[in-house]
Amino acid sequence: MRLLCVGRHQYLSEHLCRLFGTLDVQCECATGVSAAPLAAAHFEPHLVVADADLLNPSVLEEWSRADALQEVPVLAVSLTRRPEEYTSAELSGIAGVIYLPNLKAGEAVALLQGAFRPRGVDAPTGAHATAPHRVPVTY
Question: How many structural domains does the chain have?
Answer without folding.
Answer: 1
